[in-house]
Amino acid sequence: MNFLDSLNEQQREAVIATDGPSLILAGAGSGKTRVIAHRIAYLIAEKGIAPWNILAVTFTNKAAEEMRLRVQRLLRDQELSSAPLVSTFHSLCVRILRQDIEKLNDKYTRTFTIYDQDDSQRLIKNCIKDLGYDEKHLGVRATQSAISSAKNRGEDVDAFAARADYVDERRAAMARVYKLYEERLHANNALDFDDLMIKAVRLLRDVPEVCEKYNNKFKYLLVDEYQDTNSLQFALISLLTEKQQNIAVVGDEDQSIYKWRGADITNILNFEKHFANTKTIRLEQNYRSTQTILDVAGAVVKHNVERKGKNLWTSNPKGERVRYYQAFDADAEARWVASKIVEHRREQYDIRAAVLYRTNSQSRVFEEAMRRTGLAYNIVGGFSFYERMEVRDIIAYLKLALNPNDSIALQRVINSPPRGIGKQTVEELARRANDFGLTLWDTIKLVIEKPDGLSMRAMTALRGFRRIILKLGEMAGVVESPMSNVQSQTPNTQQPTPLDALVSDIVKAAILDTGYEYALKGEKTDEAEARLENLQELVNAAVDYDDNGVEGLREFIDHSALVSDQDQYKRDAPVTLMTVHAAKGLEFPIVFIAGLEDGLFPHSRSATDPAEMEEERRLCYVAMTRAEKFLYVTHAMKRRVYGEELASEPSQFLNEMPLELIEDLSLGKSWLSFARGSTTIEYEQGEYRKEKKKYTGKTYDSADSIAEFFKQRASQLGNTGGGFQSAKEQRARDASPPARTSSSRVQSPTPDTEHQAPSSEFVPGSYVKHAKYGRGLVLRREGAGDSLKLTVTFPGFGQKKLVQKYAGLEKA
DNA sequence: TAAAGAAAGTTTTTT
DNA sequence: ACTTTCTTTA
User: Fold this and answer.
1) For tag attachment on chain A, is the N or C end more exposed, with fewer CB atoms within 10 Å?
2) What is the layout of strands, in order, in the sheet containing A767-770?
């Protein structure tokens, strides 16, 4: 088989440039995964490189899986002694650290525990509490993200503290939390996600023999999604490739969407400077999308200033226009999307579609709509299997068995299922642990041996708990370690001998011997039933693990920490629901981008910072370029946020699309029809320039559209509804300032107002006049008689709830 | 101590 | 709206 025949000239170039550094700038849909896979196959089959000398690094397990599959397919005729290593950054680091972390001499042992986001958050919470800070003022999440970004910047506790001291009290407090957090991680022999990168980099940097070893092992290095690498990842790559410089990175600046997580775009922009004699190859032919989709996506991303610009082209057909729908609310949006998917699948039974949204919270309505419609959907994100409470509990038992010093795991399961070790007891233990400088585990041992102060009941329960953990440890081949404390860790006392018991047996024991199953069975609820099924699923996963090989409990647990919700993606599902971030690297014949609303996409948190705004735009670009044939964009006029309904304006990104390439499928008047009427499109130096008239309030705002909606519905129901005129006519006479509706709240009408004749003229959808606020739109009425309350939105003042009797309202 | 009920905070994106 | 955390009660 010739690996080069099916490639275009640039792709071929990228595949055969195996020696020395290469920078492959690959536009959306230009075949970048293909190039990496072919390059690996080429190295093995044509250049005779041993598979174990090749390392490919990705960000997600999903991407790694895809890569492995493609390489395997290309090399299916070859007899291979082993497969090339395709790994995520984090699992690569774990691999390296499980081998050699003790060479760092900072008291971490090879049996270290990995703390995921949730574990680390719990620990930070404890730290904040124990330092006596107000959780409300400091904020667990805020603190965690501050610490995480400090770590990613390479700022240790001292550097962070030095910078914080003079800034403000809050940051100084965070610095103290950071310090305690680090100490406790250490005491627990635990590493958080950031530490995995940090320690691996330090190991390669400070221990030449380790660096040498991996340089000799990985002679060829490939990095996917290079635009999203942060400084630590860059350091890791540089160190791994120090000796041979055979490194190929693939990326696209327009698809950089992880700046918020520390991704440093200069890594890709300055690659040629960092690596001498870089060969730069551009892949600019798009094989994925229609010309129209590329045109629309290109027009949007062109609004970014921080951009080199590229010339992405395709020989694909022009295709159909981008389809647009304005929905009344999120529910209607979801139902419409579902109905369109059904239509498409009637035409082509196996066509795949993706629904992309900005935030995970949008997923629920789509899930419900798909279920109602009977579409088999696959949802990525939100809860991963390993994030379910019961699964985490069992994993915590197993983690504890392997590393009893893991106080986070201990606190998680010490009383679940309930065994009489309540809050009081745990707090007492924590106090003593702190006083003695011992871990919780060792404190328990001490308390059991020298009983004092604690109730008989608590003692018995603690003894039982300890016995359970020790037994699990025994099964996993852990030798009970002598008393350890913070100062002297105990290296090498726990050597698991994986052959003692199967992983699945240990998992079963953790479910049964802990009383976990018994407690769930006792509940006799549907929910408990579902939890039991999930635990059965965990056992199945463990059985698979046993069947597949030689790895032990440790690897099973590592896997559970490093595998994420991204990995639930099933490529053949008819419908996939996911965030735009999760869709990076994927492609679908049909793509829906939902919730294109101001404050949602682009997200309000990005509104103040132009750089973040550009990232939102790139995100939009990524979403659009996932589509092969059909692209749909939708938005809703109102949406629930924190349980309150807010009116929402269309996204500015809609406005940045060439309107002539959009087909309006909305019922009645939509934002787009207003936009068309009021926009003059000018050509300036060969580019579209549009006059921005849309947000003056004269052409469109949601309150108007909602009024329009009520009017239509009223006439359908034969209800006179107060006899108001069309929103447009009213507005023409209206001298009040333009509505600022993006912050105004809108309530849906109570159901009975639709059917029963209103007792007054102030019905939802009609306009009223208020002495102070001027003219406003009635959104909702509650109560009757003297207590009749109206919810009214006033342009410029937002929503007010008024008692009709006192408000002195007039019909307007 | 544990269960049940009330109040408060929450949503940007993720290894 | 939904989930986590605090408060009350058995």
Assistant:
1) N
2) A798-803, A789-794, A774-782, A767-770, A810-811
A423 sits within 7 Å of strand C by its CB: no
Q: What is the pLDDT of residues A345-362, one digit of tens each?
A: 999 999 999 999 999 999
| Single-letter residue type at A564 | S
Q: Is A302 helix (H, G, I), strand (E, B) or coil?
A: coil
Predicted local distance difference test score (pLDDT) of residue A761: 66
Distance from residue A92 (CA) to nucleotide B2 (C1'), in Å? 44
Phi, psi of A641 (to 5 degrees): -130, 125
Strand B, nucleotides < 7 Å from a protein CB: these are 1-3, 9-15
Residue nearest to nucleotide B11 (CA to C1'): A361
Please give the positions of A annotated as active site.
32-33, 224-225, 255, 626
Question: Does at least one atom of strand B sit less than 7 Å from the CB of A417?
Answer: no
| Residue A631 to residues A25, A376, A601, Cα–Cα distance (Å) | 25, 20, 17
Q: Quickly state the pLDDT bin for A733 (edges 50, 70, 90).
A: very low
User: Please, which residues have CB within 8 angstroms of residue A99's CB and are 6 or more apart in sequence?
Assistant: A110
- C-alpha A48/C-alpha A712 separation (Å) is 72
Residues β-bridged to residue A636: A327
Nucleotide nearest to A458 (CA to C1'): B1
Say which amino acid occupies A330.
A
Torsional class of A609: left (φ above 0), alpha (ψ -120 to 50), beta (otherwise): beta
Chain centroid to CA A283:
28
Higher pLDDT, residue A549 or A143: A143
Q: What is the DSSP string of A321-346?
A: PEEEEEEEEHHHHHHHHHHHHHHHHH
The rounded distance, in Å, linking the Cα atoms of A578 and A354 is: 8
Within 7 Å: CB of A153 and strand C? Answer: no
- pTM value is 0.82
Beta bridge partners, A745, equal A646
What is d(CA A508, CA A523) in angstroms, rounded to the nearest whole number?
A: 20
Most confident of A60-74, A706-720, A746-760, A792-806: A60-74
Torsion angle (degrees, nearest 10) of CA A132, A138, A141, A147: -80
Q: Quick one: A228 exposed, middle or buried, by C-beta within 10 A (0-12, 13-18, 19+)?
A: buried
Give dist(CA A513, CA A529) in Å, integer. Answer: 19
One-letter amino acid of A610: P
Per DSSP, A201 falls in state H
Chain C positions within 7 A of any protein Cβ atom are 1-2, 6
A533-590 pLDDT, tens digit each? 889 999 999 998 898 877 789 999 999 888 866 667 787 889 999 999 999 999 999 9
Q: Where are the beta strands (DSSP E) in A333-462?
A: 353-357, 377-379
DSSP character at residue A567: G
**Both tokens of residue A148?**
């995480």
Is there contact between A240 and strand B, defined as CB under 7 Å from any strand atom?
no
How many Å from the CA of A334 to C1' of C6? 36
Any strand B atom closer than 7 Å to A95 CB: no
State which residue has its Cα closest to the C1' atom of B10.
A642
Predicted confidence (pLDDT) at residue A693 exceeds the cutoff of 50: no
pLDDT digits (tens, 9 = 90+) for A493-514: 444 444 568 999 999 999 999 9
pLDDT at A713: 58
Strand C and A388 CB separated by under 7 Å: no
A722-727 contacts: CB < 8 A, separation 24 or more? A722/A758, A722/A761, A722/A762, A722/A763, A722/A765, A722/A766, A722/A811, A724/A765, A724/A766, A724/A767
Give pLDDT, residue A580.
Answer: 95
DSSP conformation letters of A144-184: HHHHHHHHHHT--HHHHHHHHTTT-HHHHHHHHHHHHHHHH
Tokens (6 digits) for A250: 């693939």
